[in-house]
Amino acid sequence: MASPLAELRLSRRALLRIGAATGGGLALGILFQARAEPESDTQDSSQHNGILSPNAWIRIHTDGRILLVIARSEMGQGIATGLAMLMAEELEVGLDQIQVEQAPVGSAYTNHLLGEQATGESTSIRDAWQIMREAGAVARQLLIAAAATIWSVPDSRCSARRGRVHLAEDPRNLSYAELAETASRLPLPPAPKLKPSDAWTLIGTPQPRIDSPDKVLGAASFGLDIKLPEMLYASIARCEVIGGRITGWRSEAALEIPGVLDVFAVRYGIAVIAKTSWAALRGRDKLELSLRPSANPAADSNRIRDRLQGALKGRAAVARKDGDVSTALNGSHAQIEAVYEVPFQAHACMEPMNCTADVTTERCDIYVPTQAQGRTQATAERITGLPKDRIAVHTTFLGGGFERRREQDFVVDAVELSQLLKRPVQVVWTRADDLQHDFFRPMSLHRLRGGIDAEGRLTAWFHRVAGPSVLARIAPDEIRDGIDPCMMAGAADLPYRVPHQRIEYRRADTQVPIGLWPGGGYDHNSFAAECFIDELAHLADRDPLQLRRNHLADRPRHLALLNEAAREADWDKPPASGRGRGLALAEAFGSLIVAIAEVSVENADIHVHRILCAVDCGQAINPQSVRAQIESGVAFGLTAALKGKITLTKGRVDQRCLSDYTPLKAHEMPEVSVHLVASDAEPGGVGGLAIPVMAPAVANALFALTKQRIRTLPIRLS
Amino acid sequence: MISVTLNGEPLELDLDPDTPLLWVLRDHLGLTGTKYGCGEGQCGACIVQLDGEPVNACQTPLSAAANHSVKTIEGLSPDGRHPLQLAWIVEEVAQCGYCQSGQLMTADALLAKYPRPTDAQIDAAMSEVLCRCGSYNRIRRAIHRTANPESQNG
């Protein structure tokens, strides 16, 4: 997944694209592409023929419109606003002066941290930070050069401000619209000239989300809001038994539903085709299916737990080895061992999976709430055989993504059906489909051993992760020496300095489909590691915050953040009577977070009253978005800590509806305070940052209050 | 024919009276602001007002709306300047936004009943609408902001 960004920066160069914009006027487009793409060079030479390349970030029209292209999916994280801010900062325009447009599929829009055109794993801002600002800067430099040319003055006498270029000590000024045509004929500047940080007017300031007005009107268009002429609707009944097959079906009752047109088998199940969504859903309810279970033993939570427990013993792949853990444990003053358990989790996006496709013999248009435009195009290419340039992916707003929308199953549904029916088709998943046919966050077990010396310092740390491999299906090439990096994030890169460490992974695959989840490996590993370090602090009779400090002594950012959190939470003073406080720290996605949870217990019911998060995400682009993302992660993380659990019985997922798998509700939401520390370090990701620290912070708080160790999620008190 | 007053306009609908209001709005009237989240009355994304009361549109057959008044997000204000909508923007409530129509219609019904709701009243009403993005605290602030405009000092 991740590839080093540094390499890329050296190989990028700018291309200028000029041509007639649709709707009249001239447009100036700036494109940055990898040097190693000869294809773009040939396009380069033919660019002056009046056709605007869609591969542009910025278009300045002669009618005054300034269009910024957003190549990441907006799923609530505020990325459209964040990316627009990066470009607008350097372009010297206000957010009130721009329009944004969702990018088509194109190599220029690759997320270099993911190696594909996709949104996820808290990468968007890290990937865009340099590129988007450079795009804005080059455009600004060209517009200034255009004004200088028109006025016959040196560039240095011109400056840009709010969409106009002004001449120093002179009333003359020209709008970008007036300059666009001249600018488009100028040679590119030798290098982008980025503004110094003290000249920023947008970056680092809280800016309102640009999508709020549409969202409060109900006017934002999500996947299910797409309506095409002649469009049909489809609901697909999938085999409910994992690994099983639908061997027969009776469709008479379904076909009697008014509006139901047809029922037939497709790749993933039995499709009911109808004139309306409601008819498709009703018809599908009337299907009678016969199933043949898998020839393998049925997927079953108890059986899977046994399997993972077996994987806690025996050989394993070694992800990290510092010193000699066995000797250090044997020689330690005191040692403990514990096993932690994390269940399967669903994504449960509020907008169920869906996709709309319009396939003809000539082309394919896909309207989809997706996090993975590149793969969506590739999926359609494989199914239709059409060339890529005739497959367009139109990204709608996403009613939640959470990595679920990196998958292609719903795209296959729609493209296949539209190709077959020669009509636009919208495939609607039910909530039960969405919960039962998810690619779940994997279940995992963790065995940890730790030793302390007589001074209460950690001397040895052993952590074995046992669980199925996420990357085996998604990116098998990234598994090296038996290590799935996605399963090991947060374990192999434990932030604490412990002289003797051994981190192991024992792969134990199950039949249960699994996939990426926000927070990735940090979720399960931080729960285990951050709770276990609390256990060791208790063993050493040390304050858990102080023990962490002791092992981060040479890491000033970590220390500063711990101190900030401690100060804000009054950690040195005991909590109110009847309350418990717990702490957790995570280093992930280039960012750091410390969470402190405050809980109480009433008749075995857990109340999380307050969550304090201290965050160091480097340079925050839009602090308002960072705060909102942390709050969001608190809710998502608490759902997983306290409520969510996917279980299987005889091959079936037990959870069918939102009363079986209920996200945190309004009355369960704690007070959240987010403390952002000022930093000018490179921006880090924040989308999944708060999720991994919720379960351990709450579990540690419960221990402080009840002396009961929580080692299994979701948290239950005995 | 079934008569419904929808967002203040009288409407005659020639549809199966069993059709859930959700799909009448979405499939037949093109009012897609009301969202499908579960179809089982558990998420609240489809909440609309029936004679001012918040109801899950997916659990309300068209027949139940006959000769009654239905208000959807599209009818909350003519121009997006309903005090709740403005407060929602100021408090930056919406993230993915999918549940927000249900949240706004529930909040509007709450304020009609309790012009100055307590936190407990807000919790009781708003717990009917799930938000996977966790916008709950902002929703609470936006409701208080709407209910107590004088205490906000702009």
From TrEMBL, chain B:
Coiled-coil residues: none
Pfam families: Fer2, Fer2_2
Superkingdom per UniProt: Bacteria
Keyword Secreted included in the entry's annotation: no
Ranges for domain 2Fe-2S ferredoxin-type: 1-76
SUPFAM superfamilies: 2Fe-2S ferredoxin-like, CO dehydrogenase ISP C-domain like
GO molecular function: 2 iron, 2 sulfur cluster binding; metal ion binding; oxidoreductase activity
Keyword Nuclease among record annotations: no
InterPro entries associated with the record: 2Fe-2S-bd, 2Fe-2S-bd_dom_sf, 2Fe-2S_ferredoxin-like_sf, 2Fe-2S_ferredoxin-type, 2Fe2S_fd_BS, Beta-grasp_dom_sf, Diverse_Oxidoreductases
Keywords: 2Fe-2S, Iron, Iron-sulfur, Metal-binding, Oxidoreductase
Native source organism of the sequence: Imhoffiella purpurea
UniProt-recorded name of the protein: Isoquinoline 1-oxidoreductase alpha subunit
